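Can anyone check this?
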Amino acid sequence: MPRLPNSFLALATSLAGASMAQAQSAQDAGQTPSASVQSASPLVSSDSAAVGDIVVTAQKRSETLTKVPMSISAVSGDKLKEQGITSVADLTKVVPGFAFQPSDYGSPILTLRGVGLRSVAIAVSPTVSVYTDQIPLPFSEMTRGATLDLQRVEVLKGPQGTLFGQNSTGGAINYIANKPTDRFEGNASLTYGRFNEVDGEIELSGPLSDTLRARLAVRTEQRGDWQQSTTRDDTLGSRNFTTARLLTEWTPSDNFKISINANGWLDKSDTPASQFVAFAPQTPGPAGRQTLVPYLQSLSPTPNDARLADWDPGVSFRRNDHLIQGSIRADWTVAPEVTITSITAYSSFRERAPIDNDGTAVNDIRFLIHGDIDSVSQELRASGTALDNKLKWVVGGNYESDITKDHQVGTFLGTNTTLAGLDFDGFVNTNNQNIKSYAVFGSVDYNLTSTLLLQGSIRYTRQTIGFNGCLADNGDGTIAAAFSRVASAPIAPGQCVTLDPVTFAGVPTVTSSLKENNVPWRVGISYQPTSGSNYYFNVTRGYKAGSFPTIPGFFPSQFDPVKQESVLAYEVGFKQSLLHGLARLSGAAFYYDYSNKQTQGYVTTAFGNLPALIAIPKGDIKGGELQLDARPIRGWTITLGGTYIESRVRSHLVANDPIGNLVDFKGEAFPNTPKWQVSADTQYDFALSARLKAFVGGSLSYRSSAQAAFGNLPIYQVKGYALLDLRAGLSEGPWRLEAFGHNVTNKFYVLNLSHTNDTVSRVVGMPVTYGMTLSRKF
């Protein structure tokens, strides 16, 4: 076991000491925080003066947030609606330590406590796994509609490889949907905002018979263009997204229940355009193709205006993506202390997304992403209690099969589009994978005393990945003709142009496989002197599966996979009710020992210095977090949270930076890992009359600066920023009217920087938006 840094131990001692002192004071005063615990509601009612305790299912059983001995951020569905949280990316506003950025080709990158995976591929296992009602969304591109009609969201921080189906080194996000009700109820809302945004949502729930209930939720988001071309009278950026879910629950008896979930979404929005930052040719000098060089050299960096960008004229950038998912869950109480649960799910994802991320009005490079994912998963588990409820246990198994297709169809006129004196204009990066995972798991919680809890959980996972892919001609024959000049035999249009390193003949395809197994585990001890306090220490080993890259490989060796990564995590934390239930303080200190960290680097290819997956042999992350939830007076709620993270590469690794320089990454921080992240939210509800009520509120989120890639290049620094949202409104009976503003200071901020063929470009966040929402419950 590696030695823990002194700074980690000092922070842990400080946090635990302060909270233990508060717990002793509470006991001495005869405080009973249990009075503040709410049995089911994620938020206390507005007429209560106490801070409520959310009921969560982080350990696959219902228990209050305070009693779970791990770091969890849980936010109710009502709170998410109040703050306008409609996507996974928006969780940065309410979850300290969580970061989001789009990849170079638009796929989402989710990071918790500095643990994330930046990759240009869509079919790569994430470090932060996402579930809806414990149903996996195995790849991050599939998560767009997960925020519909929620009871709450639970964000579990740290490795989560024991109880949940996907191994993950960063954490897990579990969305809990609102369930069908025993009586008819519903909600409808309509939003109008800047850029002609019109959003509508409706939820209907109620019984269909004495034993059958159903809930239907539908949301559509429509918005006009918000981006403006820097070179012509043209706009881009419309939003056209619709998602729906139908839940049914059948309870033929008191000890048996079947839940069926049918959901999906359709996304026909424009893909965002990028801003030009600098000219950085892949093939500098006369050796490169000169078609666009004079134009690119003449460009100036795009001003710091969020609405400005550029893209190829006369091309539609409307995506055509969809997800269809269905699941069946059965819960059978076979004995008073034993329940058997089966969850079967199927997901089908299709993506057709045109991407122009060079930030210019010429075709330096443009992609059409063809992505297909078919996923089948099955979990069977048993859970129960024994020894007069002193022992809680879970045992089970998982199976998952994913068939993925990731084809990046590129067209370009950049400096790297020439070979052996012949220019070419297109190519296809192909990556087809057949992934199968098998796992068995178990966990035990044992109460040594009424205040002392021991926990342990373990999983064995075996995964096999079959891969085939290559760099291929797109059918026009230009790249096949160019590679034929260096190959030992002619290559036909539409065929692979990847070359055998011995014969120099084009290969039919590159085939390979990766077989891995691992044993993630967690052990912990928790001390709970009162119902409103918890002090815990956990040690966790987590893994994330290996993956094959999606790149233009000149030789088959460039498609070699990166192996699985692992994290050994130490965490000490506390949760403490304060001021007789008027506040709750929680905190944690953590240290992660990282091995074989997967990340996006850059490698030399046939087309120059391009993105690819690499592995960092050794690294570590240390930090701490605090969160305060308070209700100083009736009607006024405050939430403050912050995370501090230090990350570094511990081992020597000489590799390319984004511009193609060879550098040693040792000592550098992990990309997209700001040291500081802070979030705050407050709202005051008050009465104007016996029936009319009003509210005012706002939220602030801040992150410090970070590098977008290894190399410590000044041009790749993402500056820190703070975003302010405000809201106010009225409610009377079932009616509610809210006025809102997001990024009300119109702060310019950068989400990602990348080297895209011959340019450095950036993706930026939206400018100020505002509008009004009218809703009614019935």
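Reply from J.R.: I decoded it. Residues 6-777 form a domain with the Maltoporin; Chain A fold (CATH 2.40.170.20).
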